[in-house]
């Protein structure tokens, strides 16, 4: 099921944002090599929170160079973090900072790469994602040193000692933002409380107790097919628009589960051909469902016109609460009974 409201309209470029010509923001020009000539700049696509343009320029050496420019609400970019791990699979960053001509807005300038409108093969994509996950947290904690943005929504990336604490805070923040965006809903509020107090501990805490541990690794954080493409020249996968933090590697699969995206469980299975699954493995599918639930709620925040995402989220909440409503306590009790039964079997 593709949960896009029939009345949903893809954002166009507002008239006051459209531009074609040879002028660029003064701070953007300062970021280019001195003596660079702007041949042409044009706004070519918009989202609800950013405008993207292509700049064709001639460097002082006479070499022609094209750049990708995004102007958006201020927020620090995490692309540089990805570049440190997968330099061939991310557009090179040129500069970012405040706009001179548009107070309160920021720009992000990178190399322009011609890309195919297609998804890389599953094996090619997961090999790049797995490479990202080789970079571990600098302090052993979950979080990120700066605030990152999911679309226009700022993420609380303060450092946490446990994945449960970090994810619960992230989920709670998204739930509150969804209610503020879409309006109050008693059932959603009641289910949200049970998700936070029962389902999150039940599905995440077992990975960090009983001698188990999660190593916080770098994740892309917004890995849907719209942020993945194939370089026309090199034919390698290209990833962009990350919302990075250090977390559980499986979090990056949250958007690989939803049927509205071109990625699928095939990509998850491909990943685990060469990478270990987190224990307990029997919880894996519903862990991914929990991560995907946070993604569904985030979409409801970012696209207010889409009224179907809330209903989709409520349905998944109902399922998870029905299955895991006894929380972590129920898990411990069940493990105790299982251990007792196994011991009894050995004794017999």
From TrEMBL:
Catalyzed chemical reaction(s): N(6)-D-ribulosyl-L-lysyl-[protein] + ATP = N(6)-(3-O-phospho-D-ribulosyl)-L-lysyl-[protein] + ADP + H(+)
A Pfam match: Fructosamin_kin
Enzyme nomenclature, EC number: 2.7.1.172
InterPro entries to which the protein is assigned, alphabetical: Fructo-/Ketosamine-3-kinase, Kinase-like_dom_sf
Keywords assigned by UniProt, alphabetized: Kinase, Transferase
One of the record's GO molecular function terms: kinase activity
Principal EC category: transferase
Protein name listed in UniProt: protein-ribulosamine 3-kinase
Organism in which the protein naturally occurs: Rhypophila decipiens
Classification of source organism: Eukaryota, Fungi, Dikarya, Ascomycota, Pezizomycotina
């Amino acid at each position: 099921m593709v949960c896009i409201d029939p009345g949903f309209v893809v954002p166009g470029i507002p008239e006051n944002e459209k531009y074609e010509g040879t002028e660029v923001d003064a701070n953007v020009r300062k970021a280019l090599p001195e003596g660079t000539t702007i041949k042409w700049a044009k706004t070519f696509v918009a989202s609800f929170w950013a405008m993207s343009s292509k700049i064709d320029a001639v460097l002082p050496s006479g070499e022609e160079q094209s750049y990708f420019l995004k102007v958006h609400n201020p927020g620090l970019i995490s692309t540089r973090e990805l570049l440190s791990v997968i330099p061939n699979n991310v557009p090179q960053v040129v500069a970012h900072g405040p706009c001179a001509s548009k107070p309160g807005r920021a720009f992000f300038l990178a190399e322009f790469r011609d890309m195919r409108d297609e998804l890389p093969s599953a094996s090619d994509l997961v090999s790049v994602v797995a490479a990202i996950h080789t970079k571990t947290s600098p302090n052993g904690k979950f979080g990120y040193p700066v605030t990152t943005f999911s679309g226009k929504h700022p993420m609380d990336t303060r450092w946490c000692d446990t994945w449960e604490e970090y994810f619960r805070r992230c989920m709670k923040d998204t739930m509150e933002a969804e209610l503020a965006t879409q309006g109050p809903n008693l059932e959603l509020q009641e289910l949200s409380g049970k998700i936070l107090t029962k389902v999150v501990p039940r599905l995440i805490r077992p990975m960090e107790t009983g001698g188990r541990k999660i190593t916080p690794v770098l994740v892309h954080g917004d890995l849907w097919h719209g942020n993945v493409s194939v370089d026309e020249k090199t034919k390698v996968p290209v990833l962009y628009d990350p919302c990075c933090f250090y977390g559980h590697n499986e979090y990056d699969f949250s958007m690989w589960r939803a049927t509205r995206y071109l990625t699928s469980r095939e990509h998850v299975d491909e990943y685990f051909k060469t990478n270990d699954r987190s224990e307990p493995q029997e919880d894996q599918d519903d862990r991914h469902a929990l991560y995907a639930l946070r993604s569904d709620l985030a979409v409801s925040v970012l696209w207010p016109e889409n009224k179907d995402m809330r209903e989709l989220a409520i349905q998944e909440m109902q399922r998870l609460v029905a299955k895991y409503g006894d929380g972590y306590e129920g898990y411990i009790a069940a493990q105790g009974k299982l251990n007792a039964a196994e011991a009894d079997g050995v004794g017999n």
